[in-house]
Design a protein that fits this description.
With about 325 residues, this protein is of the alpha/beta class. It folds into 2 domains: about 220 residues, 3-Layer(aba) Sandwich (Rossmann fold), CATH 3.40.50; about 100 residues, Helicase, Ruva Protein, domain 3. The protein has 12 helices and 15 strands. The strands form 6 sheets. Strands 8-9-10-7-11 form a 5-stranded parallel β-sheet, with helices on both faces. The chain has a two-stranded antiparallel ribbon with strand order 1-4. Strands 2-3 form a two-stranded antiparallel sheet. β9, α6 and β10 form a beta-alpha-beta unit. α1 runs antiparallel to α3, α5 runs parallel beside α6 and α9 crosses α10. The N and C termini lie far apart (about 60 Å).
Length: about 325
Amino acid sequence: MSGRVVPTDQIHITKNAHQINVVLRNPEVHVNAESEPHFHGKPLSQQGQFGEIMKELDRMVGLDQVKELVFEIYALLRIAGFRAEVGLMANTQVYHMIFKGNPGTGKTTVARIIAKLLQTMGVLNKGHLIEVERADLVGEYIGHTALKTRELVKKALGGVLFIDEAYSLARGGEKDFGKEAIDTLVKAMEDHKNQFILILAGYSNEMETFMQTNPGLPSRFPIQLDFPDYSVDQLMQIAEMMIKERDYALIPQTELKIRQQIVNEKQQTDTDTCFSNARYVRNLIEKAMRNHAVRLLNYNTQQPSKQDLMIIRPEDVRLERKAAKENYKFL
């Protein structure tokens, strides 16, 4: 039987406050569901490198909104190809993006995946990611900032320019050179239209304020994504993945200890202290691995067994939180 996909509805494009959303309604009826590769519960008709990219994203915990967006872009580009084949106009869209969320929610990883995806789909010819922050863009004298910013845009052509903590560009007042960086970026988006994608990332509230500093900014970034904090269950999934990837194992008591550490950390987080999500879990797991190694060396006079080399015990999980933002004291 053929693996052909029969569409049952059209792609609906809605516009709201200068933002374009592509939504699939009742997207497909499968003639042979098992033969069709899937991403995030939806069918794909391309394999190879594209399929691997989609698998990489689908393995990430949570991020449902992001995964939906990726499928929207994929669907739009695929349909554009079909339209071109029958002589219909295949319009291009702007893919500049805003990523909003706390640290450790996957923003940089997703930016890297999107760069590879758009290269595979023919939107970008290189698909590389240039990751920068304020210090890489802002110079020390008049004209220096524009020069530095243009050079970074040049390096990003064919790929993605990812600016973390982008809101910091607007924090220095009227005489600060950050405004010059913003103006240079806006001009570059016009001068190099469709030659690179600009992604601005940062904390949600700060990015909302930042977008209001320049009336032309919101309409230039039609795609805005929120990266919410992970739930405790999702963070436990991430912890288990990290453990498995490193050839370690957890016993139930250790899982309970890790869960309690995560719950305590999230409860202690307040408005002045950002919970660092997967970054906190990584720090916790890596510290536990070091404690595990010290414990084995201190209490074993001979070669430890394979099981001992793998098992992380509850006493290995120790990470004390300090009051300072994203600052921890390791025991």
